[in-house]
Amino acid sequence: MAKCSLAIELDEPDRLYTSNDRIRGTVVVRADDDVQCKGLKVRSGWATHGRGNIDSHDLHSEVLFQGQWRSGEEHRYRFDLPVSSWPPTYHGRFLSVDHYVHATADIPWAFDPKESRPYQVVSSTAPNAGLVEKNTVTSPVIGGIVKILLVVFVLFMLLNPMLWIFGIPIGIGAGIWWFFKKYLPKKLLGQVEYTLDQESFQPGETLRATLRVHPQKDIPINSVIWTVTGTEVCVSGSGSNRRTHRHELFRGGKLVDDIRTLPGNKETRIPLELELPNEPCFTMNLGSNQILWETKICIDIPRWPDWNDSLAMQLAPSKELVQAASVETIDNGGSVSTQPTTTAGDEPDVTFAATLEMIQSVIDDDRQVDRIVDAVRDLPMQLNLIPQRRELYSSSSKTHAYPDGHVVIGQTIDPVMPVTMFIPRSLADEFDQATDRPWSGEGSIVGYDHRQNRLQLRIEP
Amino acid sequence: MDWQPFAAMNLLRNPFGELTRDDRVRAAVVDVADCIDRLQQPQTALQFIADCGRGKTTHLLSIAAQAPAAAYVYLPEDERCPPIPHGQPLLIDEVQRLPWLVRRRVFARGGGLVLGTHVDLAGPLRRAGYRVWTYHVGQDLTAERLAEMLNRRIQLARLRSGPIPQISETEAADWMTRHGSDIRAIEFDLYERFQQQIGVG
Predict the structure, then answer these.
(1) Does the predicted model carry a pTM greater than 0.80?
(2) Which of chain A's ends, N or C, has fewer CB atoms near its CB within 10 Å?
(3) Nearest Cα residue in chain B from A55
(4) Would the ipTM clear 0.85, i.e. be above it?
């Protein structure tokens, strides 16, 4: 039986997080007995769940506490962790991706209590994963290397008569396949080119592709069949237990049956268009769990092997999607966060009073105080203070002080906390006149003096 | 937390998806205390025999979790035999795939052995000087035990305090009628059942 229980309280449990966001909250520890904790660790990251083997990634972890908890006590530890912007939160049939804050208490000789809290992530960009590698293989250098290796392999086979026993049937099989699947269709159709207008698409966007055929003589065809599929592909187990689970998320395409003949000595251009679904099932490649988008095209030739080709594509998120999702979160109201998601580059709204309250709640824990100070360091804030007296520079002040400025001792108003203020020379008179009276102005938190227990503030000129 | 598809059931996720190795041990309903005791004696080998999906690997992982010096290795099908580590005990999953020569060397090492296998290896183990204990996994499966296994998996996916879905013994007996002792097949069906309940499946 665990001697303590953990709970995670997120500051904004229903917020949509995106790149550059940080997730903040509190780990609440309730001890049932005296517990020696080797480390209360908190980490943020993502994990898949569903039919496939678990793929996961921890973005950041840190130790919030080490020491003893007494029976019956409740402790609260603040955390502030980065958010991974990829992969986005996704819930499908065989594959789900969730982002979590995990907390674990390492208790010697006991069952380690664990707790996880999911949070929702939307992405505005995707890494270039999952795209077909066909394009890269066609690069001249790699193509050349592949050809050389093939020639070396064939020579090696020819020079070893014993290998002919294996080589001949393999060669014949491969030759038959190539002859029927590649050579014969191409011989008839001549130059065929299938291209996508772009490699990356967004949900709801129109996918455009073009098929160009240039036969040497008139070729009768039955139809051109174009299919676009999005599939969840999850692998579970390994070895004899290995299974691949596939679930088709989307199937669309076009049947071109109005062209019955491809005219000879003339290029026929067949434009293909399809509206992609508006669902955020983006191309993902997470190891055993993937979402793959593929387009296939087939020219159905009567009494002749069909010509086939396929190209992978990427369904990627868009910035508009992130904005729309954020607006939806606000509109929902009720239990849903009314805080808009901060976009990349925007700073979250941090007030001086809220920061002071946070510092005061962990004032006995130097490390926690430093963490909060580091998080808000140099952020411009509206300060409300009571200056008390001017002080001479001390060695500990030199880092933050203005070269020609002054150091003033004072306190904050609500909550009350002793502070050291570094003021520029231009404000020296103003501070002298404001002694023991409230003063408001702009400045920032620059540090915490643990020796004197004073918050250090730099006042802006 | 309403955005979570299983939040209405007070669950973090579908409880019958794949688990991490740690979670698999947490969800296991196996009593390995007897096995751990037997492994204290020298030259002891335990072999767990069963078809796929009956719980051989779960037994091996549960023993490994209780023995700090243990080493676990899984032998994949149609792939090269991985290096066999040293451990006390040494746990080998799908040991019937071990090449004969390697098997002879491993059995000659001595020390505790825990094997997951489809074939009875008592003969070669005894010839190598081992005292062998054989467990036929899945044969003693009851509806009560199956219900406990399934409910423990649901418990692992709990979102917050409060009621969560439960599998009754009657339902467990129904599943056993359909799939026998193939727990993996039961879990696959339950995965689909849970997905259907949230409208994805």
Answers:
(1) no
(2) N
(3) B20
(4) no
